[in-house]
Amino acid sequence: MDLVPALREPLKKVLGPATAKVMAEHLGLHTVGDLLHHYPRRYEERGQLTHLADLPMDEHVTVVAQVADARLHTFASSKAPRGKGQRLEVTITDGSGRLTLVFFGNGVHKPHKDLLPGTRAMFSGKVSVFNRRLQLAHPAYELLRGDTDETVESWAGALIPLYPATAKLESWKLAKAIQTVLPAAQEALDPLPASLREGRGLVSLPEALLKIHRPHNQADIAAARARLKWDEAFVLQVALARRRHAETQLPAVPREPRPDGLLTAFDDRLPFTLTEGQRKVSAEIFTDLATDHPMHRLLQGEVGSGKTLVALRAMLAVVDAGGQAAMLAPTEVLAQQHHRSVVEMMGELAEGGMLGGSEHATKVVLLTGSMGTAARRQAMLDLATGEAGIVIGTHALIEDKVQFHDLGLVVVDEQHRFGVEQRDALRGKGKQPPHLLVMTATPIPRTVAMTVFGDLETSVLDQLPAGRSPIASHVVPAADKPHFLARAWERVREEVENGHQAYVVCPRIGDEEETPKKKGGPPQDDGDKRPPLAVLDVADQLAKGPLSGLNVEVLHGRMQPDDKDAVMRRYAAGETDVLVATTVIEVGVNVPNATVMVIMDADRFGVSQLHQLRGRVGRGSAPGLCLLVTEMPEASAARQRLNAVADTLDGFELSRIDLEQRREGDVLGQAQSGARTSLRVLAVIEDEEIIAEARQEAATVVAADPELTGLPGLRTALDALLDDEREQYLEKG
User: Fold this and answer.
1) How far is the C-alpha of 288 from the C-alpha of 553, rounded, in Å?
2) Angle, CA of 41, 43 and 45, to the nearest 5°
3) Which of 652, 655, 611, 657 is nearest to 637 (CA)?
4) Distance CA 69, CA 87 (A)
5) Where are the alpha helices (DSSP H) in 347-409?
6) Mean pLDDT of 338-346
7) Cys-Cys with 92: which of 65, 182, 264, 352 at CB 3.0–4.6 Å?
8) 367 forms bridges with which residues in the sheet?
9) Nearest CA to 189 among 9, 40, 13, 33?
């Protein structure tokens, strides 16, 4: 069913083409319904002042404040050589801080007349710094005057909605546009089933829209937000529940392992026993594989919890059942690493059709973009004939030319590095949809898993295998205490002298041609930082300085694949003492003899990324050490983030911290292949309970009525909230 006409009305018909164009281009708002769902970011009481003390740099802000003073200066410039240039400086205050507004040239006359001391107004502009002071240059403003029919009390207590705005469209202009379309809210179809709404004491959708845009008091805002959070959680969970339901309708070939096949032979030759967690997760996977609809499972595991072993056992079970298994890795280094470790773990079981191969053996082939033509042709032939039971590769596996004899299982490693289309292309290579196992070493909080990967069942490996050592982590404040950094290099030498190896990680490579301003790294706490440290520079300085005499090598993403592989082989063989690398070593690299990692400019990495990197050491019986080097001051948010990483080895705890410190939309957007997040009032960490309850309610509704024929309002909301891009994401799972 389509959206009701009033909410489908294009904004250009209601507000005029010019305003509608700005809304479409800058805020992605096209219809009356879109605009009604553009909620205020916060509210100001006219009697209160905003906090000028904590304005974000380089962001477009709206503040409510009072003019403290205004001064008009004249100056000489190239355009006004006779000292006729004019600059108006207005200081505004809110009790918590002061802020300077500047206006130049002909633009000074109106504000000079309007902004008299004592005047209250809303000001909107981009925050910048001049002479170490925060300022807004040429801000737009709206004077706050009490209308004659308002009493002083009601005027002072009225709530002013402040909207997410842009430089082209200030908050108050959005507010006026929303007031124009607000009557249409009465026609909004309610997506929540009446029983659910009444059972939870939620207001109707028209009432919620009215209260969020024109609240009389804080209670109105709370009631509206409670209701709108439920809409977002429920509609999204219904979409995911329908996806899960549709999956159960698809046919798949059940793959049950033979009791005396390849899997049994493999288990018999393992030199250790599986952890309880590995056995439990394997059982969940084998149960899924034995069903006649495709498995859809997310395997989350702490760094080093043995995910690869669990995935390999699943692949062997499928080969036992007559199918083939493909493992998709995000980089060539990782694909080669997986191939090597799988062949090593399997021994003669990986030598199918070869002299010395076991009777149960199969062939394990590697397929990457940089392989020679002959090797590539042979690998493709082995896949097409069914000779190879297991293939490990990169995106090269997805090419049209690659044909499988009978693809039964797809394992995707580090899922967030693959687009949905790529997974879909590989799944399309089976005669029937193959089973899918997605692995990630980035622990995902339960609510994010329910929100982003809600169409996948989740298994968690949170036990470390026996023999894995603890990792000690310390922050090294290089600027405050340079002798700590000198001691860090001494520790590296000590580890090497004891027969171990070290990693040094840097944020960039160092052969870039771009200007320093463009060089990588997440947004920084301040604007005037030096460029991030580079692998090539640091390796050179270490080899000539504190680590002279040791065998230092470099590894980064722009090296030729063969060179990268050769470096990793030498390091794995213990021929290299110190490997200076970018984050190419973040995932899957397994060198048990490496015991120490020094991360330079650690503040330039995200929390989860630091946790991933740290997981490369302590993989053997010797304890691991991770040193987080930073020049950020002790009080900075960056230092607090690093302290959090040093304080805990619990990846799930760190992922919560990571999520709380970043904008949620970034997390969700990234996980959704760039699809615009539909979450406006729902916060995935804070609203854990709502999401969990909405998931249960959605499952009940979809089980009873998969097509939602009895719930037209819910169908409408699905069409409206899930834009095309996102719908596609959910389609492809």
Assistant:
1) 45
2) 165
3) 657
4) 14
5) 373-385
6) 90
7) 65
8) 393
9) 33
Question: Which residues, including other chains, have CB under 8 Å from residue 307's CB and lie 6 or more apart?
Answer: 299, 301, 439, 441, 461
- pLDDT of amino acid 133: 81
Query: 529 is written with which tokens?
Result: 């930082």
Report residue 153 as tokens: 């009390």
pLDDT tens-place string over residues 376-434 = 999 999 999 999 999 999 888 877 788 999 999 999 886 555 555 666 676 778 788 89
Q: Which amino acid is at 611?
A: H
Q: Are strands 407-413 and 435-440 parallel, antiparallel or unpaired?
A: parallel
Structure tokens at 71: 């001064």
Q: Tokens 């700005």 belong to which residue?
A: 22
Q: What is the pLDDT of residues 264-309, one digit of tens each?
A: 999 998 888 888 989 999 999 999 999 999 898 989 887 667 888 9
Q: What average pLDDT does the segment 132-142 reach?
A: 84
pLDDT at 725: 43
Tokens of 318: 């499928």
Residue 82 neighbours by CB under 8 Å, 6+ apart = 76
Query: Which phi-psi region, left, alpha or beta, contains residue 119 (left: φ > 0; alpha: ψ -120 to 50)?
Result: beta
Is the pLDDT score of 516 beyond 50? no
Cβ neighbors of 7 (< 8 A, separation 6 or more) are 31, 32, 33, 36, 184, 187, 188, 720
For tokens 């991030």, name the residue.
Answer: 532
Alpha helices for 98-142 (secondary structure H): 109-114
Question: Whole-structure pTM over 0.85, yes or no?
Answer: no
**Please, what is the average pLDDT of the chain?**
81
- Could you give the 3-state DSSP secondary structure of residue 357? coil
Cα 646 off chain centre by? 22
Q: Which two tokens stand for residue 626?
A: 């991770």
| Contact (CB, 8 A) for 658 and 605 | no
Residue 733's contacts (CB-CB under 8 Å, 6 or more residues apart) are: 243, 247, 296, 420, 423, 436, 455, 456
622-631, 642-651, 711-720: lowest mean pLDDT where?
711-720
Among the listed residues 60, 141, 59, 144, the one whose alpha carbon sits nearest the alpha carbon of residue 107: 141
Task: Return d(Cα 670, Cα 651) in angstroms, integer.
Answer: 19
User: How far is Cα 123 from Cα 67, in angstroms, rounded to an integer?
Assistant: 11
Pairing of strands 471-477, 363-367: unpaired
